[in-house]
Design goal:
Helix content is about 30%, strand content about 20%. A hairpin with a 5-residue loop joins strand 2 and strand 3. It is globular.
């Protein structure tokens, strides 16, 4: 009789069950087990146990209603243009990526059967056979080539263009094989392909009024800025399929209204609950919270190309005026880790632990404001509920400024239209950035001179060159040293102030099962619809 290995733990059981729910094949699971030193026979026994445990847990059926915090008439079903969490939720439900980032941060195969390279520059992607789009079309290399090339087409306006530009060649080898040649080596490519924007669409798709993907759900209703309804795809390629019959997703921008909708039973998931509202759910057996810290943050952005940010003394003054401890303890109720004005959190292995956060120093701030000739001048900070906790953060900064004679006002604007009308545009405004799994992705999206989301319009030739060099560095020690220096450059030179890395809190009904933490953000990296179930 084959016995379970003596070094096997409940955590290992959970990891196997996690992969089964992600749709991993038996071959992939056995390969993982053998890599951990488990014999083939013992691996088979473990898989049988894990499969039985997974099968006994979920309940099939039912409709889930979930509420996010922000939406707009610019909502889209085009993965390349996805911007908001609302977009990501739909894309995760209706489409699939070549790879998927698991809760442990490791890359798993999704539409790809394998992704391999000998030099981190030329990559061969083998696709899973027999996968079908919602319209019945079979997935092929043509769909992958088309989807990737869309990010390079200026007319598309892809939000992942800066990441995709490193793909110098994207070609079909055969019906189930794609070759990607990068301009420079990048060992992170499998991780990059797990991002929401790199969902695969059918070859030739230009109409995104609905979604024709390969995902676990089919789009039934799409009303931008209002709601989305997805119904289960019974022809889904993953063996377990979705557990829910359908799900409805919409936004309730007001935090208290979102929590009250959960408490009243109108919804079963309230995303990104403000820490102040935890007292509303504590002690209520009908609801629970799902808390994860993966690098999400709300930041204060000062554009360096317009007044008042054109004067670095103003930027320096603001960085010294941020009471990070007060924001962590009072605004975020302790559900955060103090930040140091750069986007790579301590959850990332490339985080620079030697880069200390700026001290709260009002007198130093006053010195810089006086030097800039701005002490007493009215300067608005644009905030919105769309950028979580930004209104409360702005109030803390405003009060600190008032004590030294700095006239900072809080310009609170509606959630609807915030990301298209104010973010990246207002001279001083707040943003909210979801976690990204690698420094290269964060820097490419947010700090490169041509980054699509360059919130402070930071430009540095040195930084740009280092980003490309670090991307291709196969020497881990060298790569780490470069990422540490780049974090220092961002903290000291850019106009983005990141006071804390926020723990994401989703509040859910106690009947909701299957929700897990994910490094790509709350709501299971926005992919919750495929993996959760409702107990009767």
């Amino acid at each position: 009789m084959t016995k379970t290995p003596t070094n096997w733990t409940s955590r290992d059981d959970a990891a196997v069950e996690h992969m089964i729910r992600r749709g991993a094949s038996r071959r992939e699971l056995l390969k993982m087990l053998m890599a951990s030193g488990v014999a083939v026979a013992a691996g088979g026994t473990l898989l049988s146990h894990a499969t039985a445990a997974v099968a006994a847990t979920p309940t099939t059926g039912g409709t889930l209603k979930a509420a996010g915090w922000s939406s707009s008439t610019a909502d889209t079903l085009d993965p390349a243009k996805a911007t908001l969490s609302t977009d990501y939720v739909r894309c995760c439900a209706y489409y699939n990526r070549l790879t998927f980032l698991g809760g442990d941060g490791n890359v798993q195969m999704e539409l790809a059967d394998s992704i391999e390279s000998d030099d981190a520059q030329t990559w061969t992607i083998k696709l899973k056979p027999g996968v079908q789009f919602h319209d019945g079309k079979t997935l092929s290399a043509d769909d992958v080539v088309y989807s990737m090339n869309r990010h390079l087409d200026p007319a598309v306006g892809s939000k992942a263009n800066s990441l995709a530009k490193q793909m110098a060649e994207i070609s079909k080898v055969d019906d189930l094989t794609v070759k990607i040649v990068l301009a420079e080596p990048n060992a992170d490519l499998p991780t990059i392909l797990s991002l929401h924007h790199f969902m695969i669409v059918a070859d030739g798709t230009t109409d995104f009024t609905t979604a024709n993907g390969t995902g676990a759900f089919k789009s039934e209703v799409f009303e931008p800025g209002v709601r989305s309804i997805g119904v289960r795809n019974d022809n889904y390629f993953k063996p377990q399929g979705a557990y829910l019959d359908s799900f409805e997703f919409f936004a309730i921008p007001d935090n208290n209204a979102r929590v009250n909708a959960l408490l009243s039973g109108d919804i079963q998931l309230a995303a990104a609950v403000n820490p102040r509202s935890l007292r509303m759910v504590e002690g209520n057996d009908a609801v629970r919270t799902s808390i994860s810290t993966a690098g999400n943050y709300t930041n204060l952005n000062i554009r360096l190309d317009v007044a008042p940010g054109e004067q670095m003394d103003f930027v320096e003054g603001m960085k010294s005026l941020i009471n990070r401890e007060a924001i962590q303890k009072s605004v975020l109720r302790g559900l955060a880790e103090i930040g140091n004005d750069q986007p790579v959190s301590s959850a990332n292995r490339y985080h620079n632990p030697n880069l200390a956060p700026r001290d709260f120093d009002p007198e130093k701030a006053k010195f810089h404001f006086e030097k800039a000739g701005l002490l007493g001048v009215e300067i608005p900070m644009v905030a919105s509920d769309a950028a979580g906790s930004s209104v409360d953060m702005a109030t803390v900064v405003q009060q600190a400024g008032a004590e030294i004679g700095m006239n900072l006002t809080v310009d609170r604007v509606p959630s609807d239209g915030y990301w298209s009308n104010y973010w990246l545009k207002s001279p001083v405004h707040f943003g909210n950035i979801n976690p990204r799994p690698t420094p290269d992705i964060l820097f490419s999206l947010l700090y490169a001179s041509d980054a699509p989301w360059n919130e402070s319009h930071y430009k540095s030739e040195k930084f740009d060159k280092m980003m490309i060099e670090a991307r291709g560095a196969l020497d881990e020690e060298k790569r780490t040293a470069m990422y540490w220096e780049m974090q220092e450059m961002v903290a000291n030179e850019a106009g983005t102030i990141i006071p804390a890395y926020i723990s994401n809190v989703d509040a859910v009904t106690s009947k909701l099962g299957g929700l897990e933490a994910n490094p790509l953000g709350g709501m299971m990296g926005y992919a919750f619809a495929e993996y959760v179930w409702l107990d009767a």
